[in-house]
Amino acid sequence: MSRLVIGLGFREAASAQSIGEVLASAVRQAAMPDVATVLAVVKDKAAHPSLLAAVQASHYPIEAVTADMMRHADARIITRSERVIRQRGVGSVCEATALAAAGDRARLVVTRVVSADRTATAAAAMTEDMAP
């Protein structure tokens, strides 16, 4: 069974609206409506109120990703932000969480999408051997 993983990254001040905006954009760009979808976030933000509010209506399960898992996926990330590298040790939180949760054979199908207010990001990954 195919599995699409939407990785989310967001600032502490991000609103549910901003997170929802990038989530919807990544799902739309991935264009895989019949594929099981899960969300991946950094473990220390998995209970963030704005995240929980944004995904409540989506019914997508959330998987928490550790910092070590993100760093392991970093070599496969496309987007590189110096600020994020300094803060989190990876080029892109959303791309790293998506790839980490999707597994070692995963590939990005949507690179970083940024919310209008620049407080939230999303990316999508899928395992290579499951890709259409």
Layout of SSEs?
Elements (H helix, E strand, L loop, with lengths): L2 E8 L5 H15 L5 E7 L6 H7 L6 E4 L1 H7 L8 H7 L4 H10 L3 E9 L5 E8 L5
Parallel strand pairs: 1-2, 2-3
Antiparallel strand pairs: 1-5, 4-5
Question: Brief overview, please?
Answer:
This protein is an alpha/beta fold.
How would you describe the overall organization of this protein?
This protein is 35% helix and 27% strand. With 132 residues, it is an alpha/beta fold. The protein is globular and about 30 Å long. The mean pLDDT is 90.
Overall shape: globular
Number of β-strand runs:
5
Structural class: alpha/beta
Specify the helix fraction band. 25-40%
Distance between the termini: 11 Å
What's the CATH architecture? 2-Layer Sandwich
What integer is the average pLDDT?
A: 90
What is the succession of H and E elements? EHEHEHHHEE
Count of DSSP H/I helices? 5
Oligomeric state as shown: single chain
Give the uncertain stretches in residue-range form: none
